[in-house]
Design goal:
Blueprint lengths: L1 H17 L29 E4 L6 E6 L8 H5 L13 E6 L2 H4 L12 H23 L4 E7 L1 H12 L6 E5 L7 H8 L4 E4 L3 E4 L11 H18 L3 H4 L8 E5 L11 H9 L3 E4 L7 H10 L6
Length: about 300
């Protein structure tokens, strides 16, 4: 019975994904949702949980990895960004994503398609835009910092909305996610990178024996969100966007998202990024940024 359920979930995911054309969905695009679509509240301050002193001149908007069904700061009350030497100089805004504001997207009955995933990604970028604008309207300096999935959110926002922030920091993301990886995610599967370059899919190898229906939905829908945000080539989408005063931190042997290719690195150099390579593993590349700052190699 569980095997049949698994086949049905992955088959529905693959069929839904294959029917869609690749594009960055716009805010005005109208599609039909078979589950509850994320509704962004009119009160912009409901989009985040903040800590620190609100009178600080600089606001750090922090984008977590995932995609998850909860804002980690709510449960943990801390973040790895706290190790930044100047962390206390920021008013810290832990921003929701569509998937944390509307976690039901992972579990609701009905199909979750690539078309819907693209729209939810667009909602997340809209939330980033509204948060930045809220603080810029109040004359604040705004930094946007994203790790892992959060580092994918930033280029999507920049490709679809005005670049309003004063600085962007991306750690453990990609600028051009390999399309074979996007295709695997679009089918509802995940995988890892060998030596940061060879992607090994878990399709046909992962043991789903202990997964119940809710766990399978969570697993597959996470992959569709990753496919939707990874399918655009941001080296192309961002070619005319001013990205000076930005920072990129990566591990060339990253097992989770892979290492940046020479094409990606050349794009970052051409846009004026400060680039720092670290040996810290995927979940700890923020520590590499800390090292870079303390050694004077990167300014934040």
């Amino acid at each position: 019975m569980k095997r049949m359920l698994l086949i049905m979930i992955f088959t529905m995911t693959a069929i839904s994904a294959c029917k869609q054309e690749k594009k960055i969905s716009g805010d005005k695009e109208k599609i039909t949702f078979s589950i509850d679509e994320t509704v962004i509240p009119q009160d912009t301050t409901m989009l985040w949980v903040a800590d620190g002193n609100p009178s600080k001149d600089t606001v750090a908007i922090l984008l977590q990895g995932g995609p998850k069904d909860e804002l980690s700061f709510i449960s943990q009350r801390k973040t790895q960004w706290r190790y930044l030497p100047n962390y206390d100089e920021f008013y810290r805004v832990h921003l929701h994503q569509a998937n944390t504001l509307n976690p039901g997207m992972f579990y609701s009955d009905g199909k979750f398609t690539m078309e819907m995933a693209r729209k939810e990604i667009d909602h997340t970028s809209e939330m980033v835009y509204r948060a930045i604008k809220y603080f810029k309207d109040r004359k604040k300096t705004v930094y946007v910092m994203g790790h892992s999935y959060g580092a994918f959110v930033i280029p999507h926002y920049l490709a679809t909305r005005p670049a309003l922030a004063d600085k962007y920091v991306m750690a453990s993301g990609r600028i051009s996610d390999p399309q074979n990886v996007v295709a695997v995610h679009a089918k509802g599967f995940n995988g890892t990178y060998q030596e940061g370059s060879i992607f090994l899919t878990d399709e046909g190898t992962k043991d789903f024996t202990d997964y119940d229906e809710a766990s399978l939905k969570y697993y597959t829908r996470k992959q569709l969100l990753k496919a939707a945000i990874g399918e655009p080539s941001y080296t192309e989408e961002l070619k005319d966007v001013d990205l000076t005063n930005s920072i990129y931190v990566y591990n060339s042997k990253d097992k989770r998202v892979g290492g940046l290719t020479e094409q990606e690195l050349e794009f970052l150099r051409s846009k004026g990024f400060q680039i720092y390579e670290t040996d810290h593993s995927h979940g700890n590349t923020i520590y590499g940024l800390v090292d870079a700052i303390e050694q004077g190699n990167v300014k934040l």
